[in-house]
Each structure stands twice: as C-alpha cells, then as structure tokens.
C-alpha cells in the first residue's frame, strides 16, 4: 500500500470525481472570452520542456496533448537516452532537442515560444535565465527558486528580455480552489477568520534530489508546504505579514539535510491567520479548511492532480469540474502571451512565496516570529 | 442555526452515536476490577458542587444521577434562588447547602466526601483551598487555575490535608480518546509522527466571565484549546517541551480582554509535534488527528459531550461506546478515593498544562518559541 514515489502517492490518494458540473464556469475560459481576433490566436504556442523527470513525463507532456493553445515543440535534457525516447514518442524534430549546454541556441528556433522549467529547484534560475536570454517566455515550476536573490534575478532577466514569467501554481487554476476563493470573496458563509491547511506525504528514495538541500533549498515546505501557503493566500486575499514555525525530525538519517516535518503559522494583514502542517514523513496530510463567521468550508483532499473533494458546513455542495490542471495552467499562460495580458501567477508571486518560506526557516531556526512587509496579494 | 451558548454549541454539533460496542472494554471499569472488598466500597461518595452555572446544571448534576459510586450530597452557591431550586429538585438537606462564606463549615459534614469546583477559572484556587481545609477531596474543572503559582498552592493545600486532587479532564476517560491512545501506544499504524488538533466555537454573550481575563485567565486557549493540548499529550505520551503561538483578533471590541483565536504548536521530547488551533470566533473547529508511519487516525468531532466520531485511514472502524463523560470521570475519582489509589488526572497534570498555556501566551506576546522542561506525562 506504500506509494513508491511522490507521483504514485498523488495518484493513489486521488478520489474519483463526482463530475457534477457547476452552474457557472469558474475556470478562466479562453473559448468564452471576448478578445480581439488576431492571427496569433489561431496558432498553438510551442512549449519546450526543460528537465524530463517524472513530472514532465507523467503529467506535463500528456497534459500538453490536451491543451487548446499549446503544443510540445521541444525538449532540453542532459540524458541522451531520454532525448531518443521523447523524439520517438512525440515526433520532436532534431533541431528542437537540446541539452543544458546547447539550449541557448533556442534563440534561433521560432518554433519554441515558451520554456517550461521543470528541473530541481536550485536550477530554476539557471534555466530560466538561459531561456529569457534566448528570447522565450518562461513558465517555471514551484518553488520558484531556493533564494530570493535568485528569484529577483529571474524576474529581472525575463523583464529585460521583454517576455513573461509565470510560476507553475496549478491550484490557482483548479476549479475546486477557485470555488473556495469565490465562497471566501463573496462571503457566502461570512468573513473568513481562520484557515487550516496541510499537505505532506511519505517520501521514498532517500537519494532523490528533494532530500538534498543544495538542490531543493529545503524539505517538504519547499515542495508541498508551499501549496498550503498558496491556498491560505488565495482565501485570505493577501500575503502573510508574519510567520512562525517549528520543524520536527524523528529520522535524522533520512532527513539529515532537510526538515522532516514542519508546523507553521501565517498571519495576514486583515487579521486572518492560518495554521499549516507539512511533512515528508507521513501520508494522508492533504487538506485546506476555511472557518468563517457563519460556517466552514474546505477541500479534503485539496492538492491532488485530480479527485479533490469539497465540503461546506451548511451541507450545500462544494463541487467543481475536474480539469487537467497542467493543461489549464499552460493554456492560461498561452492566453496571456497571445493576448498580451499579464499572468496572474507572475514571478513576483513566486518571489514573495520564497521570501515567506525563507522567513519560515528563519523562524524555525531562531524560534522567533519573523515579520514580512504587508504587500497585498 | 447559531448556537446561543457554549453548551448549545456542544450539543448541536453532537452526532448520534453508532453504538457499536468494542470487543474489549476500554473504560477504566470499576465492576471488573479485582480489588479488596471494604465497607467503604459499598457506599456512594457524597459530592458537593461548587458553582451552579450551566455546566453544573446541565451536565454534572444529571451525570451524578448516572454514577455508580457518587451522589449529589451538597451545593455551594452565591445565589439563594439557585439554592431553593436545587434543594427542591434534588432533595438536598439544608445542612448541606452552603454559600462561599459558609463553605468551610463542610468540615463538620461527613455527608460530603468530594468537592467538585465548577466556578470561573480564577476562583478555582479559592474554592479548592477552602474544600481542602475542610478535609474534602477535590475534583476541579479545567483549566486548573490562571497561574502556575495558584496551581501549586492548590496542590500543596490538598496534600497537606491528606486528600486527593483531580482535574476535570473528561476526555481522559472518554472511550474514543482511549481508543486513539491505544492505537498510538500499540503502534497499530506505526509510530505517530505528527498531530493536529483544533477546538473552538463562536462565543455568545459578550458580558460572560469567559471573556474577562481576570476571571478566565485568557480566552479560548484556556477554555477549549486546553483540550487539544490534552489530546496531543495523550497521543504523544508526554508533555510538550517547547511551544510557539500566534493570536488573532479581528473583533477587538468583543475580544478586548482575551485572544479571539490562537494557532499554536507543541513540540514533544520524542520528536513528535502538534499543530493546533482554537477560537472563540468561529464554529466547526473540533477535531484531532494523528499521523503515523503507516496511516492516520482521528476524531471528528473530537471534544463533544457525546457523538464523537472516529476514523482510520485503513478504513477499519475507530469506534467506542458512548458514555456519560462526567459520570465516568466522577466514578473514576470515587474509585481512586475508595481504593486509595492515585488519580490519573492529578493536580500536577493540571499545573503542567497551565504552565504550557502560560508559555503559549508568552510565545504569542514575544514572538518567541518558549521552552518547558521535559517531564514525561
């Protein structure tokens, strides 16, 4: 019954969707938007995937086949065998297959519009900057990077290139999370006062990069705890202004480099606070709950690729359609590029969350509440 | 739908019990214990209730009628009209009806064995000490008092009188909580690594003593947050050695004196940590969850007077019989007194939890993790 990888875990815990459609669509819908027709709208944007690990292989490449406005146009990999396999599977032309030393040649490849960075966290700046210098838009997986300095450098370089930078915050486009946001914003159960959110799993292979601080920047907080930060930010409608945290380590051999678990608290400028938990040690932590004046509502599970399930204390349904979250995220970014409008998940949001996570590590290390300036989200 | 009092809330959220009996009894059972027979075992101990508020009226007095080893023998009240009503309802003799000025005369009343202190938190020491000086055993409602100094004084005075002091931790005798404890102790789902626990409700009348810091010692943490501390202590098998906390206030008029909500973290000596939430602002916060190596288990709701409901991630039932928690608690204390064995919920446990709560308030005030010495629980 133990999942052997992070992906298996996310799949194992998925619950079959009820499939009841919402009365009104909540997903940013390209088809229904009244936008000026241009010739660019007709073509699909070419995406190059950088890093062909399990996320690219099992989620992003299949999702690209389901998008309306994107297509898999190129790959960047350091493993020649992967290049051969992907070329055969997806019919990628030789000219669009790169390694990390050659990827700057993308500058001469008009077939690639967007680079999707799916490498380990501490390589995101390297790959984003290369892509920006090649004149490409960049979609970068979360967490944005392992330091605020590197995040700022990414923002600066993409800006200098006149391109857009988005962070792979799939839940920002996930209909259950958007329904949570709607209930909070419309105060359907009154003002939200408290949030609880938790995401964790029992990590497998002790040699993987996620347990290597140099590559990952931290442990479960960086990898999955960030989802609780994002969820709380969505519901609170703000970024946290103060944080506290405690880490926990019961297996110092496996978790010699990064925290095993973390319990953490976020305080928002509007008085809302969030209590969060993340772990690489135990399964079944996958939930977000909002407590409002007239009732509570939440998702359990909240952060799976599919099968997230909503509930409301008034027993009304909290339902939303199932979508391919990666396809929706990529189509949204493509729509931003095509219509020249700013992404709702920009580098600045990624930077802010990295700043929050660095503050949480400082809080855990020093045993002190760490304050952050109160920028509205 | 809004409950108008704390008691209504606890009743409203109760879920009808499934009533499936456990294979083995988990409640400390007097009937099944092989103890030496003495004449004292035959008689019921006389309980005097001090403070005739809603808890005494709606829970404790009715519960006394269901006990095996206790009977309502006396009352202490500052309200003559209540004395008249209780005398009529329960047939209490005049000689066993006291006010706060006369209660020391209990020393001459052999009909009263135990004094159950149900007054506001900051009066517990006053009433406990009077009872001890009258030679009575004392059962004192949680939280024990509003300062560690007063708790220690209570312990010293009861000890000096050669009597027993127990704290009204009803969940220590509640079969669902005992089943949680059993699963944790027997490692049925492996070692517990993380705990989440939360208890809160939307408080009514803004003039009640629970919102007055001088009488309550604090807000929801003192009143209901203490249940999460107790639950985490039971599951972790220890007292916390370090705590951090943040308070939250969105309604500074109603909550001018005490915190509105608190998110808090407890770190235990065995590496386990707990993430907790308490509130006087919102309903529906009522849960305890343990995450272990091979699965998770919990109670939702966890802290009601009846209708607590268990679950396990392996889908095996987490069931337990429904009991009257106050009757069980009082019978357990009576059994301790009759058989001259120490209570499992002594003043020292109450003191330790008050120390933990004072540390949590200090952590919230200073923004610093506060350490506590690592006494095993």
Short description:
Chain A has 377 residues and is α/β, with parallel strands linked by helices.
Oligomer: homodimer
How many separate helices of chain A?
Answer: 11
Describe the sheet with the most strands of chain A.
8 strands, mixed
| H and E order of chain A | HHEHEHEEHEHEHEHHEEEEEEHHE
How many runs of DSSP E, i.e. beta strands of chain A?
14
Runs of chain A in which pLDDT lies below 50 for 5 or more consecutive residues are: 11-41
CATH topology of the largest domain in chain A: Dihydrodipicolinate Reductase, domain 2
What class, by secondary structure content of chain A?
A: alpha/beta
Q: Tell me which CATH architecture of the largest domain in chain A applies here.
A: 2-Layer Sandwich
Biggest protein-protein contact in the assembly: A-B, 45 and 45 residues
The CATH C-level class name of the largest domain in chain A: Alpha Beta
Query: Going by CATH, what is the homologous superfamily of the largest domain in chain A?
Result: Dihydrodipicolinate Reductase, domain 2
Shape of chain A: globular
Mean pLDDT reading of chain A: 90
Q: Trace the largest sheet of chain A across and list its strands.
A: 13-12-11-7-10-9-8-14
Strand portion of chain A, in percent? 15-25%
How many domains of chain A? 2
> What is Rg of chain A?
20 Å
Helix content of chain A: 25-40%
Give a verbal description of the structure.
- Two copies of one chain form a homodimer.
- In chain A, a hairpin with a 2-residue loop joins strand 11 (286-292) and strand 12 (295-299).
- Chain A has an eight-stranded mixed β-sheet. In chain A, strands 3-2-1-4-5-6 form a six-stranded parallel β-sheet, with helices on both faces.
- The first copy, chain A, is an alpha/beta fold and 377 residues long.
- Chain A is 32% helix and 19% strand.
- Chain A folds into two domains: 6-170, 3-Layer(aba) Sandwich (Rossmann fold), CATH 3.40.50.720; 174-321 and 344-371, Dihydrodipicolinate Reductase, domain 2.
- In chain A, 53% of the residues are buried.
- Chain A contains eleven helices and 14 strands.
- The first copy, chain A, has helices spanning 6-12, 39-42, 54-64, 80-90, 124-133, 148-160, 175-185, 213-216, 220-236, 325-338, 347-366; strands spanning 45-50, 70-76, 97-98, 114-117, 137-140, 165-167, 192-200, 242-248, 261-267, 273-279, 286-292, 295-299, 310-312, 370-371.
- Residues 11-41 of chain A have low confidence and may be disordered.
